Amino acid sequence: MFFSFKKSYKDSGYLEGFTDWHSHILPDVDDGIKTMQEAIDVLDYYESLGIKEVWLTPHVMEDIPNGSSCLRQRFEELCSSYSGKVKLHLAAEYMLDNLFLERLRDGDLLTYGNSGKQILVETSYVQAPYGFHNILQEIKDADLTPVLAHPERYQYMNWNDYQSLIAKGIVFQLNILSLVGAYGSMAQDKAFELLEEGYYTYHGTDVHSLTSVMRLMEKKSLKKSDIALLRNPY
What's the mean pLDDT in 25-43? Predict the structure, then answer.
């Protein structure tokens, strides 16, 4: 009977006081939110859910070569336009490609987390970048800690890969919408396995649009036991 009760994120209370550590709300800079008004609408919706803080993490990659100064300017525009209660922070989600290596070596990066010593990174979903572990080591040699976005979504990774990365001090960030099937059953299963092992440090939505995040936040597919897992402090 315990496992038969299901709730949505919206109804679970899990998001009260939540910090969203991964979002594409900064408008008109990548494949996420396109307009200032939609960005404000998302933040208003987040406030209604009880979310208190949001990290804005726009893509930076060879196909979306956002410069740090341009992102800071856009962030200031959003902060000037938004008058709600959600606290906003700026970072970026960096694809581990040649553009990232150039910026790492130039020191031109938007850091992540309260320490200012972390960097949110991602890879292709289907294969690791050439020299993947060497790139991670180069990040660490720059006195930064790599935070791997949504590791549950990487099709090429297996359990040995996850254990190896954790052993090397790589930090994991969960897309909470993976747990309600937003990216398919394989990512969903991996997310629960990694969550049960306590491998995630940060939780985020990876929101790209208001309509999709509302649908998934209100989808009734979280068991009480699942919510208890999410509440564990890591």
Answer: 98
Strand partners, 226: none
Which helix (H) or strand (E) segment is 138 a member of? Answer: helix 132-141
Asked if residues 111 and 117 have their Cβ atoms less than 8 Å apart, the reply is: yes
Rounded distance between C-alpha atoms, residue 25 and residue 32, angstroms:
6
Mean pLDDT in residue range 62-91:
98
Structure confidence at residue 1 as a pLDDT band (50, 70, 90): very low
Instruction: Please tell me the distance from the alpha carbon of residue 146 to that of residue 117, in angstroms, as a whole number.
Output: 9
The DSSP secondary-structure symbol of 153 reads G
CA separation for the pair 37, 48 (Å, rounded)? 17
The Cα 42–Cα 45 span in angstroms is: 5
Cβ contacts of residue 189 below 8 Å, gap of 6+? none
Dihedral sign, CA of 217, 218, 221, 224? Answer: positive
- Mean pLDDT, residues 75-103: 97
Residue 124, CA atoms < 13 Å, CB-side half-sphere? 10
Q: Is 98 helix (H, G, I), strand (E, B) or coil?
A: helix
CA atoms of 165 and 149, how far apart (whole Å):
13
Query: Which H/E stretch holds residue 178?
Result: none
